[in-house]
Amino acid sequence: VVGGAVGAAFSRMQQVADAFRDNEGLQKAQQKTAQWREKMAQRREEDTSSSSSSSSSASPSGEEAGEAAGEGEGKKEKTKEEVQEENLEETAAGGEYAVVLHHDSAWDRFGSRLRDMPFLHSFFENPVFGKFFGETELAVAIKEQKKIDPSFRLADFAEEVEHVIAPKLVSAFLEGDADFIKLHCGEIAYATCFASIRERQAQRLTLDPNILLMRNVQLKGGRVLEDGEDSGRPCFIWTFSTQQINCLRDSKGTVVQGAIDDIREVHYAAALTTNPSPETEGLQFPWKVSELAIVGNAPVW
Q1: Could you give the maximum distance between any two Cα atoms of the chain, in Å?
Q2: What whole-number distance in Å separates Cα of residue 251 and Cα of residue 206?
Q3: Which of 159, 130, 211 has its CA nearest to residue 33?
Q4: Is the pTM of this model over 0.85?
Q5: Predicted confidence (pLDDT) per residue in 148-188, tens digit
Q6: Which of 49, 59, 122, 291 has the most CB atoms lying inside 10 A of its own CB?
Q7: Tens of pLDDT along 28-81?
Q8: pLDDT at res. 71
């Protein structure tokens, strides 16, 4: 009876969350990534059918016509987009990220910790290092990103993080989807996440996979990387939070840590760069997760 009541409460919470969700942004982000996946599929098909290596860099037919058709609309919204860009840049340059940390959750046991991510750890823990991520560094990163993708807009990127990248990434981590993690993450993020997945599998333990709420998506900084596997590529640091259930179960479904009504606000940080192999089959979005960390968590009630 208690379990049924809790389940009904969670269902109501998700209904309320859905009511406040930015459905327009959700549809826009999902449509954009769907179009990108279709575009990459077309390129793979062209590569397969063509014997010329130059065909791999050819754009799908009709792309320029599609951009020309939307040019008028883009001009109408130009002022709005510029304001959104400026707001995002100002937030990133002046924002701080402080949370109340609790160390009694399932994610402290199996989470991807900040100290395991050298780039993110330096950004959040070293004040001197953080100063390098001012307006100039971010502006340079945005400029370089627009060289890679002339259609790049921070507002679109934020929607993509909130509605596509973050939900899929967190779900894959909670569900132990190692294939998804490997396909979409860089070496450091994959190594840490996979270690957590492997440890859970060895102990026959599972994290609760439910994401009750996704919010507080914020751009915290950006810079062009100077070393590592992503050297020369712009990297953007995003933070976001979810509401999740702190509940760890064994192979029989018995709760061994936490409780089914222990809801936590979990705070994440992620470093994202463009994927160097965007035509790889199975990719859900064009960004690579270079680093991912759980910064902390706090009880919701």
Answers
A1: 66
A2: 8
A3: 159
A4: no
A5: 999 999 999 999 999 999 999 999 999 999 999 999 999 98
A6: 291
A7: 666 767 776 777 777 767 777 765 555 445 545 544 444 444 444 444 555 556
A8: 47
**β-bridge partners, 241:** 215, 267
In single-letter form, the type of residue at position 165 comes to I
Long-range contacts of 48-51 (CB under 8 A, 24+ apart): none
CA pair distance 205, 201, nearest whole angstrom: 6
What pLDDT is attached to residue 74? Answer: 47
Average of pLDDT values for 104-125?
Answer: 66
Question: Is residue 267 a contact partner of residue 239, using CB atoms and an 8 Å limit?
Answer: yes
Q: Which two tokens stand for residue 110?
A: 């199996």
Span 195-229, pLDDT tens digits? 889 988 999 999 999 999 999 999 988 889 887 77
Query: What is the pairing mode between strands 287-299 and 255-274?
Result: antiparallel
pLDDT tens digit string along 226-240?
877 788 899 999 999
Taking a C-beta distance cutoff of 8 angstroms, is the pair 292, 270 a contact?
Answer: yes
Side chain identity, residue 205:
L
Distance CA 31, CA 34 (A): 5
